[in-house]
């Protein structure tokens, strides 16, 4: 599937098996990125959006540039996508005000470690010096509790509210947030907690060697 969709023999054959859905979609309102199309120079439709998006990624970005950005901006800088304790230390060194432990929902690199698995080592490295948040894999209130009990200051969601948006629009987003809130409330009650600030490792049973011995294996491979 591409954006915008391209009519190929394969997609046409697929559409032929779903003709009722196809007819319904023909009469549906056209969707676009209203916060970008028509507001950014040179972006007038969805077709030109892809090229513009690709141009926003700077392959030469490094820690020195982040430090310079922090200096020029003068405001708070939060770095998302940290999956390694050494990167967390570098984020602290260049002046980041907080970091988000994230593998971007697992949609950038299929083999990336899960955020929750690397969270303990990152907290051990910098958790007492910088706020550490987490996203990727948060689907329920129980997931929120697990992350915060391990030491994250907060969590973020993506797909969870998008599902609600797709099903019911704005009301669906509100419903998704309420569901997660109720799940968190219920889970806390069953754990004997009334305040998220009181959550901790005592609320969890973490499997032995949960983080894995990744560094040891890497070292052995380089020996």
Tell me how many strands there are: 3
What's the story with the biggest beta sheet?
3 strands, parallel
- Overall mean pLDDT stands at 88
Radius of gyration: 22 Å
Query: In percent terms, what proportion of residues is strand?
Result: 5-15%
Query: End-to-end distance, in Å?
Result: 44 Å
In sequence order, what are the helices and strands, one letter per element? HHHHEHEHEHHHH
Shape call: globular
Give the count of helical stretches.
10
Percent in helix? 40-55%
- The strands making up the biggest β-sheet line up spatially as 1-2-3
Write a short abstract of this structure.
With 223 residues, this protein is mainly α.
């Amino acid at each position: 599937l591409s954006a915008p969709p391209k009519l190929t023999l394969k997609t046409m054959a697929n559409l032929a098996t779903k003709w009722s859905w196809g007819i319904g979609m023909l009469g549906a309102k056209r969707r676009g990125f209203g916060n970008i199309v028509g507001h950014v120079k040179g972006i007038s439709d969805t077709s030109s959006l892809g090229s513009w998006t690709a141009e926003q990624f700077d392959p030469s970005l490094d820690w020195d540039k982040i430090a310079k950005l922090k200096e020029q901006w003068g405001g708070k800088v939060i770095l998302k996508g940290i999956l390694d304790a050494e990167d967390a230390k570098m984020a602290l060194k260049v002046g980041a005000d907080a970091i988000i432990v994230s593998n971007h929902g697992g949609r950038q690199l299929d083999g990336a470690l899960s955020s929750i698995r690397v969270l303990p080592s990152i907290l051990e490295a910098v958790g007492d010096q910088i706020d550490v948040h987490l996203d990727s894999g948060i689907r329920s209130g129980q997931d929120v509790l697990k992350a915060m009990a391990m030491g994250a200051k907060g969590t973020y969601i993506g797909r969870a509210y998008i599902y609600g948006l797709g099903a019911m629009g704005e009301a669906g987003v509100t419903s998704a947030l309420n569901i997660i809130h109720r799940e968190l409330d219920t889970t806390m009650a069953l754990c004997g907690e009334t305040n998220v600030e009181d959550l901790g490792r005592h609320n969890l049973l973490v499997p032995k060697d949960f983080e894995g011995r990744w560094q040891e294996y890497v070292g052995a491979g380089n020996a």
